[in-house]
Amino acid sequence: MKKSSYWLTILSVVLSLTIGVSGCATTKAPDNNQPTKSSVKTVKIGVLPIEDNLPFYVAEKDGLYAKEGVQVELISFASALERDTALQAGQIDGEVADMVAVALLKKIGTDVKIASIGLGATPNEGRFAILTSPKSNIKDLTSLKGATLGISQNSIIDYVSDQMLLDKGILLNDVVKMSIPKMPVRVDMLLSDQINAACLPDPLASLAQAKGAHLIIDDTYRNISQTVFLFRTQSIKDNPEGIKATIRVYGTAGQALSKNPDQYRDLFLEKAQIPTDLKESYETPTFSKLQLPTEEEVNSVMKWMVDKKLIPQAYGYQDLVDSTLLP
């Protein structure tokens, strides 16, 4: 769910979807929340086939772009790396990623701002989980000492796994981390007992469980991370009304999806590419109302990144968040 951007590298199919929607055709002056077509440039959003991006497709289905008078083009990518490269190059204006990615983008000179949480305003919106091999005798946290834990190094998965272990009193040095960035490889190594444990996001955590992996801990006990809807700062300056309208659409579509998940079930299974084994059991995600991450949540990620020497110093809350973009 909110963390699912990290299983994207398993996908070999690049979705291509271009959405061009005209604004209001009448001559009536728009209200304050609905800019005219002539005043709004096309907003280009980089998307991956994950559930965090589902509101964009709900908006297309329900005609919400036209209702807000905004033109949105969804540009599909096969991996987060390709998407982020396009953002750096100015080929897209925004994306749904995570706070580690936000700080790393700023570090390399791409100034971006968080406009809202995507998934993860509550702990139940999405899940990371640490699981052990179906053949492993490790079935609780205290038995993890000396175990090999598969992660994606210096990523949000690395951050969440550290927080879960520390929360439960496990010393990080007691676990041997192995960086396995490619999600399909990590899942296969876990299920074939080549590693003792792995940290996985849903839906892959649920898939591993369905195939016999033992759930050791997940992060539904507290809100450790979120995906965030972010934009290039230059795009915000160049097209503020278009960006704000796009955010409103994302929020409206997320609420429509949450209230009527069955109505969008087929769309969800198609766009999020849920594994075949989970299509009957995996729940359609729900989205909270648009809101910003808290300072505490942002500061926790920044501290971890500084400790890991991923950034030279912590970015302040105002460096990362633009509070003027929400409705």
From TrEMBL:
Organism listed in the record: Desulfosporosinus fructosivorans
Compartments where found: Periplasm
Classification via Pfam families: NMT1_2
Keywords associated with the record: Signal
Keyword Signal: yes
Solute-binding protein family 3/N-terminal domain segment(s): 42-261
InterPro entries: Solute-binding_3/MltF_N
Record protein name field: Metal ABC transporter substrate-binding protein
Entry similarity comment: Belongs to the bacterial solute-binding protein SsuA/TauA family.
Record carries keyword Phosphoprotein: no
Listed SUPFAM superfamilies: Periplasmic binding protein-like II
Gene3D superfamilies: Periplasmic binding protein-like II (3.40.190.10)
Region forming the signal peptide: 1-27
